[in-house]
Design a protein that fits this description.
Distance between the termini of chain A: 134 Å
Strand content of chain B: under 5%
Structural class of chain B: mainly alpha
Largest interface: A-B, 48 and 46 residues
Shape of chain A: elongated
Order of helices and strands of chain B: HHEEHHHHH
Radius of gyration of chain A: 35 Å
Number of helices of chain A: 23
Number of strands of chain B: 2
Oligomer: heterodimer
Shape of chain B: globular
Number of helices of chain B: 7
Largest sheet of chain B: 2 strands, antiparallel
Strand order of the largest sheet of chain B: 1-2
Number of strands of chain A: 35
Chain lengths: 782, 181
């Protein structure tokens, strides 16, 4: 046996020797060398590939300093139309801190209608605003007193720092609240290091000590309480957004972490981490970065967070869904307190601070209040104007400052008004929730500045922007263009020219017969122009439109600012033309501004990082329609809100506010429109269904209510129209359309181009003719 | 809205009209300022040597003539008699802005002066004086179409203010002249 065994051993040694000899043969060695070098090359290429991947991710996030987008700055001056609550609202948008004893810029004290405010300094392109300690007093809706506390002198005007409403990459669509490392509360950085990666400033991307520590901690706890990943590894993991848990992935992450550390310094990595890490989910949107998370959970900027709030955010890094403070508040609270304990343990905060922070309840705001996408519909318009008016390479330059026209107060009221009425109207129609949709846009009358845009019933949702993209038939909103075309021929048409509102049959180009109807299905006989418009009669309008001619009306629409192609079909006269609310706003703006067209603008200035204007959007106007005919038309549109289809607005706004307005309803009650303007603001509202089913609302039943609600709350004033010198005011008997005296029960003052008013007396009110150059007003009730 | 592309380029618009026209504009403006500063106001229109009619009276070509150099507390009213038919009087706030605009103008920053005037217009959008001053500033910058439109806007808001009507008409006439209409 032993012999045999020996033999066998010997033979095996002999075999292995032979194998070794074979191995050592040059040929094989060469093969092995080739195999090794191929493996090496492949690995090297792979590492280079990983390096490329991770660097392009990192550079893409890091080097682009986003553009800061600002709302319009609030201007305070004596007699400004603003009340104390609106002012405080604005201060909160600006993240001013309310305190008993305001002592630094950005703080204020309020007692009733009195404020003491220390404004922040800010450098605008056209001048610098220093920080001012001011006393402000309101009486009702007016700013009564404004003076400098230090010099005890009245202030003629104070321009506040503008609220930042977003940080964007003008050339792509992602929105984030990016922060720079020096803007981050130091405690946040300390807490991240204490909780997630104690060796962050020492390791080279991967930490064996960290892994060991986590291993021991996990064994002690009997479950996974700590991860061994460094912040760098977590950052890498976040770049590639995969939840796959495999060894291969871990290896990749580790290699990339080492590569990142090799290329960049710790502070750069920390800044990227703070802006990149996943911190929550809002429907389809992921919440990345502490800047956005701070708004998402607390509705305030990162630098405003308290110790307990910082601890909560750091706590949920471990599992934003598992530790969601909205869904699992207890778990989140426990996790937060654990973080606070760790901070105390590491000496980052003292015992007392830790205990006091642990005593705080969770202060997370409800999801619907978390205003993370500030004004997506407005931002959308702003982006489109940027892309339309600027060169791509200019937009890609770093650190642009974009000064917009957004008025946060008007925006807020518009959002509230639209949501409120869509809910009410939807309920009254027994519609399922959220089916009824709408949009609104508010513009300043003389400057053409877009003050607010709401793109749907959920204003925070950055989806389909109906204010810009819902192109719907405008119904009777077309009519002012028809009447304006007629009124331009002052020798032929006046406000009291009679139109036939009797039955009408038209033959269309295709030979079909078309019989337009009035909304009330009635015929109204002979009606004066102002009444046909204010009551929105279809038959008389169609007749008038055919009389003045479709091409002329299309020409008027062009002058008013409608740019899309318009086909000269008779149905145009009853509003088959489909426009988006923003296009309607452009059209009505020209009417509101007295025949001067101004391109609507959402942007005032764009400055480079150095504060130089890239390009300004100066105020420009172009006279496109003569003042007289617009003046006449506006008189009829004021009749519309006083006694016509738009009179519902006075259930909302005070009776002394002058409103020119027009309702619009498309076929089968699919679209409900209202366009209306006061002396300083124009508002357009659309209400309808996304799938074009009938909303079953007329203009006055739907959109008008939203408009009324908006204009009830925003500050606005009546038109200070100056009557053109070629216009005279004449008192007309509305029964006969002849001259009347003020004693006449059916009298109405209407403007006429001089020499075109009726000359015959109606005899009503004693037969004394009355002419004056006063305001259009109803003298007596009918 | 596409025509705003053209309008927004107004910032660089000095290069738009031909240089000759700009020079002519500047010359005219200088001429008018000169006349304003040195000639005692006669009462009737005078015709200068070059044939351009200049209404000395009421044609203050300095857009900020009403605003003293440094005066935080309004003594402005004494500088100029009230217009025959005044709309709302210009507020202290707007006067303060006008004074700022004047400083920018003096410092050779017409575009900043325009921005300040626009600020004032946001506060008093129907104040025809402000529209007139912006028109004048644009005229000085050689932005002729814009100057003409702004003067027309001022006129539309200044019904009854004969003084301002005349000034606006002068701007429009100058633009017409420069554009060879």
């Amino acid at each position: 046996m032993s012999k045999r065994r020996t033999h066998r051993r010997r033979s095996s040694r002999k075999n292995s020797n032979r194998w070794l000899a074979k191995l050592l043969k040059w040929q094989n060695l060469k093969k092995i060398l080739i195999a090794t070098s191929v493996l090496f090359t492949v690995s090297a290429v792979y590492v280079v590939y990983l390096d490329f991947q991770i660097r392009s991710q990192f550079e893409g996030k890091r080097w682009a300093i986003p553009a800061k987008v600002y709302a319009r700055p609030l201007e305070l001056y004596p007699q400004a139309r603003l009340n104390a609550d609106q002012f405080e609202n604005e201060l909160q948008v600006l993240a001013y801190h309310r305190s008993m004893n305001p002592d630094r810029p950005g703080s204020y004290f309020r007692k009733g209608n009195n404020f003491r405010v220390i404004s922040r300094s800010f450098t605008f392109w056209d001048g610098s605003e220093p920080s001012i300690t001011m006393q402000v007093r309101f009486i009702g809706n007016t700013l009564e007193d404004l003076y400098d506390v230090n010099s005890r002198t009245p202030l003629p005007i104070v321009r506040f720092d503008p609220a930042i409403i977003g940080r964007i990459y003008p050339s792509h669509t992602e929105d984030r609240v990016l922060v720079k490392l020096d803007e981050v509360p130091p405690l946040l950085v300390k807490a991240l290091i204490a909780v997630e990666d104690r060796d962050f400033y020492v390791h080279s991307g991967v930490s064996l000590r960290g892994i060991a520590r986590a291993f021991i901690a996990n064994i002690r706890a009997g479950s996974t309480v700590q991860g061994g990943s460094t912040l760098t590894q977590q950052l890498v993991k976040n770049f590639f957004l995969s939840n796959e848990r495999s060894l291969w992935r871990k290896v990749n992450e580790a290699i990339m972490a080492l590569l990142l550390e090799w290329h960049y310094d710790k502070n750069e990595i920390m800044e990227a981490y703070i802006n990149e890490i996943f911190l929550g989910q809002d429907g389809k949107r992921s919440i990345h970065g502490f800047g956005l998370a701070s708004r998402f959970y607390f509705e305030k900027p990162l630098h405003k967070l308290r110790t307990d709030e910082i601890a909560l955010l750091v706590g949920i890094v471990k599992g934003p869904s598992y530790y969601s403070p909205r869904r699992s508040p207890e778990r989140a609270l426990e996790r937060r307190n654990l973080v606070l304990d760790m901070l105390v343990g590491q000496g980052e905060i003292n015992q007392a601070e830790g205990e006091s922070a642990k005593g705080e309840p969770l202060t997370v705001v409800p999801l619907e209040k978390s205003n993370i996408t500030s004004y997506p519909a407005f931002m959308d318009l702003m982006r489109r104007q940027l892309r339309r008016d600027y060169k791509e390479e200019d937009l890609n330059s770093e650190g642009l400052q974009i000064f917009t026209t957004l008025d946060p107060l008007v925006q807020l009221e518009s959002e509230k008004a639209l949501s409120k009425w869509l809910n009410r109207l939807g309920k009254s129609k027994d519609m399922p929730d959220s089916e009824l949709q709408g949009a609104s846009i508010v513009v300043s009358v003389d400057g053409g500045e877009v003050l607010s845009v709401v793109g749907g019933r959920n204003p925070q949702f950055a989806g389909f922007n109906r204010a810009l993209d819902a192109v719907r038939p405008i119904g009777s909103l077309i009519k002012p263009a028809v009447y304006l075309t007629a009124l331009q021929q002052s020798e032929k048409y006046t406000l009291v020219s009679l139109l036939d509102d009797g039955p009408l049959t038209l033959e269309l180009e295709n030979g079909d017969q078309w019989q337009p109807e009035n909304f009330d299905k009635e015929f109204h006989g002979m009606v004066p122009i102002y009444k046909a418009l204010s009551n929105s009669y279809n038959l008389s309008t169609t007749r008038l439109g055919l009389e003045v001619g479709l091409p002329s009306i299309i020409h008027t629409l062009r002058l008013l600012g409608v740019e899309k192609e318009i086909k000269p079909y008779p149905s145009l006269l009853l509003g088959s033309l489909a426009l988006a609310p923003v296009e309607v706003a452009q059209m009505y703006h020209t009417l509101a501004a007295g025949g001067f067209r101004t391109p609507l603008r959402a942007i005032r200035d764009v400055l480079t990082a150095q504060g130089q204007p890239l390009q300004r959007y100066p105020l420009s106007v172009e006279k496109v329609i003569d003042a007289e005919s617009v003046y006449l038309l506006n008189a009829a549109l004021r009749e519309t809100t006083r006694r016509g289809t738009g009179q519902g607005v006075y259930r909302f706004v005070p009776p002394d506010l002058t409103v020119s307005g027009k309702t619009g309803t498309s076929n089968d009650l699919r679209d409900s429109w209202f366009a209306g303007y006061t002396g300083d603001k124009l508002g357009i509202v659309w209400v309808g269904m996304d799938d074009n089913r009938p909303a079953e609302l007329t203009g006055s039943q739907g959109a008008l209510k939203v408009w009324g609600e908006i204009f009830q709350t925003v500050n606005t004033d009546s038109a200070i129209d100056t009557t053109p010198s070629t216009i005279e005011m004449v008192t007309i008997d509305t029964e006969t359309q002849l001259l009347a005296s003020s004693g006449c029960d059916t009298a109405l003052q209407l403007p006429f181009v001089k020499g075109t008013a009726p000359v015959e007396q109606s005899g009503c009110g004693g037969g004394v003719m009355e002419r004056s150059s006063g305001w259009l007003e109803r003298l007596f009730k009918r | 809205m596409s025509n705003s592309k053209r309008d927004t380029s107004a910032f660089n618009a000095c290069s738009q009209p031909s240089e000759l026209k700009v020079l002519l504009a500047i010359f005219l403006v200088l001429l008018l300022i000169h006349g304003c500063a040195t000639v005692a106001p006669p009462t009737s229109p005078t015709v200068k040597d070059d044939g351009i009619e200049v209404r000395e009276e009421g044609v203050e070509i300095d857009p900020f003539y009403q605003v003293p150099d440094a005066d935080p507390e309004g003594t402005y009213s004494s500088v100029r008699p009230a217009p025959q038919i005044s709309s709302k009087p210009t507020s202290g706030t707007v006067l303060a802005l006008l004074s700022q605009a004047k400083e920018q103008e003096k410092a050779g920053n017409p575009e900043k002066a325009a921005a300040v005037l626009e600020r004032a217009l946001r506060i008093e959008p129907k104040n025809p004086q402000l529209w007139y001053r912006l028109a004048l500033l644009r005229l000085q910058q050689g932005q002729l179409d814009l100057a003409r439109s702004l003067a027309a806007k001022s006129s539309a808001l200044a019904q009854g203010d004969e003084d301002l009507q005349v000034k606006n008409r002068t701007i429009i006439e100058q633009v017409d002249l420069l554009q060879g209409r």
